[in-house]
Amino acid sequence: MQVKIRRIRYEDLDSIFKIIREVFPEDSILICRYISEIYSKICKYSLVACIDNNVVGFSISNLEYGRGHILYLAVDKKFQGCGIGSKLLCYTLLMFFNEYNVDEVFLEVQVNNHIAISLYSKYGFKIIRRIPRYYIDGSDCYVMSIDKNYFKNCIYDKCVEKISQL
User: Fold this and answer.
1) What is the dihedral of CA 127, 162, 28, 102, to 10 degrees?
2) Domain residues of the chain, as ranges?
3) Which letter, b or e, does each residue of 84-117 get, where b requires 16 or more Cβ atoms within 10 Å of its Cβ?
4) What is the topology classification, in CATH, of domain 4-164?
């Protein structure tokens, strides 16, 4: 299975929205509308993972106040557990730290999403704070971040190795 990572294209949105409906069913209408509205701002910071030219995952990100912000990272349920999320995360971190020279990348994650928290922790993200009632369903989120120095010193080699796989 060869996974290719590339920048998002407008024509990828339908495939991305299909994954969003599957992975985030309770918030999918709002998430899809939000991505449509901000597409022109996020397109140069967002990536898709493709197998045989089919989108199987994505990382929707933005540059905010000089920091990288991962808004959404998801993989089609049929391909979860294959390393695609790790590969997308690594590409996103390398893009922000190398191409855009940011000092920090951050994200929000539901406190009960242990799989995602484990993935982000594995690649150097630390929990910064908890925000109560952040999501529509009233659940809390953790804000997690990684800084450039920690990434370069401790995580860079792991990401380069992950990118060479799949």
Assistant:
1) 60
2) 4-164
3) bbbbbbbbbbbbbbeeeebebbbbbbebeeeebb
4) Aminopeptidase (3.40.630)
Residue keyed to tokens 């995580």: 155
What's the rounded Cα separation, in Å, for the pair 140 and 46? 25
Predicted pLDDT of residue 25: 85
The bridge status of strand 54-64 relative to strand 67-75 is antiparallel
Which burial class, exposed, middle or buried, applies to 52 when counting CB atoms under 10 A from its CB (0-12, 13-18, 19+)? exposed
Residue 85 near residue 119 (C-beta atoms within 8 A): yes
Task: Indicate whether this model's pTM tops 0.85.
Answer: yes
Quote the CA–CA distance of 26 and 32 in Å, as a whole number: 12
CA distance 1 to 166: 6
pLDDT digits (tens, 9 = 90+) for 31-45: 999 999 999 999 999
Q: In this structure, are residues 143 and 134 in contact, taking their beta carbons and an 8 Å threshold?
A: no
